[in-house]
């Protein structure tokens, strides 16, 4: 998992690629939160600063469409309390309602015209709550996309020092049509020993990576 760090330059690149407007409207956050959250989610506190990324855990989600082109898919993540972060290229709209999180594009190279190639989208959440996260993938063109999730639990201390649990899961080469929306559900727990899980709306579990 990448270290939490400032991504203002890449965030600016995102805004250059797509002129977005930040929005607080859209799907009902309260409705989602009431249906999908861990029983103890209200007992967990939000992060206060980047030190919480280590003490309270981390989530990192990367996504991208076909290689050697600008991304044709956007990803919107809704946390167990109904707060959103991400981008919808069909709008276009961008959201950042989480207390400590960031979303950006990382482009490996540029073509002769200075346009980005092989871009990957990233969403990093510091101190994520335990519970169910909704992932909504929206496409501006017919495409195939992949998603990978890396998770780290909160720190646990014993006589040998501090320990965390890391886990990963991915979905590869999923087809999506222009203007359509794919939904996946991500299960995460801060508790050491737990592993992240990713399930599409058809309720078919995806292969887990250790």
Brief rundown of the structure:
The protein is mainly beta. It has three helices and 15 strands.
Structure description:
The two termini are 13 Å apart. By secondary structure, the chain is mainly beta. The strands form three sheets. Strands 1-5-4-3-8-13-14 form a seven-stranded mixed sheet, with no helix packed on it. 34% of the residues are buried. The chain is built from three helices and 15 strands. The chain has helices at residues 8-17, 29-35, 52-55; strands at residues 21-22, 58-64, 73-78, 84-88, 93-96, 101-110, 116-126, 131-139, 143-152, 156-158, 161-163, 166-176, 181-188, 197-200, 208-209. The model is unreliable at 5-40 (pLDDT under 50). It has one domain (8-209).
What is the H-and-E element order? HEHHEEEEEEEEEEEEEE
- The N- and C-terminal alpha carbons lie at a distance of 13 Å
Described by its quaternary structure, the protein is single chain
Shape annotation: globular
From the alpha-carbon coordinates, what is the Rg to the nearest angstrom?
A: 17 Å
Total of DSSP H or I helical runs spanning 4+ residues: 3
- Pick out the low-confidence regions: 5-40
What's the number of domains? 1
Beta-strand share of residues: over 45%
Strand order of the largest sheet: 1-5-4-3-8-13-14
Main β sheet profile:
7 strands, mixed
Q: Averaging pLDDT over every residue, what do you get?
A: 78
Give the proportion of residues in helices. Answer: 10-25%
């Amino acid at each position: 998992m990448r270290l939490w760090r400032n991504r203002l330059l890449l965030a600016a690149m995102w805004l250059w690629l797509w002129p977005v407007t930040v929005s607080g409207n859209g799907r009902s956050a309260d409705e989602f939160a009431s249906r999908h959250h861990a029983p103890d989610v209200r007992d967990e506190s939000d992060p206060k600063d980047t030190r919480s990324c280590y003490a309270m855990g981390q989530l990192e989600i990367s996504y991208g469409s076909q290689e050697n082109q600008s991304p044709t898919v956007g990803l919107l993540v809704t946390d167990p309390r109904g707060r959103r972060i991400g981008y919808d290229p069909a709008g276009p709209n961008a959201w950042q309602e989480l207390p400590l999180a960031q979303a950006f594009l990382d482009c490996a190279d540029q073509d002769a015209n200075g346009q980005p190639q092989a871009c990957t989208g990233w969403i990093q959440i510091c101190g994520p709550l335990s519970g169910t996260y909704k992932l909504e993938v929206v496409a501006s063109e017919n495409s195939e996309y992949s998603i990978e999730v890396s998770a780290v639990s909160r720190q646990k201390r014993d006589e040998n020092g501090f320990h965390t649990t890391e886990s990963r899961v991915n979905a590869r080469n999923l087809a999506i049509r222009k203007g359509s929306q794919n939904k996946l559900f991500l299960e995460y727990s801060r508790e050491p020993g737990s592993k992240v899980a990713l399930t599409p709306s058809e309720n078919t579990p995806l292969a887990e990576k250790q």
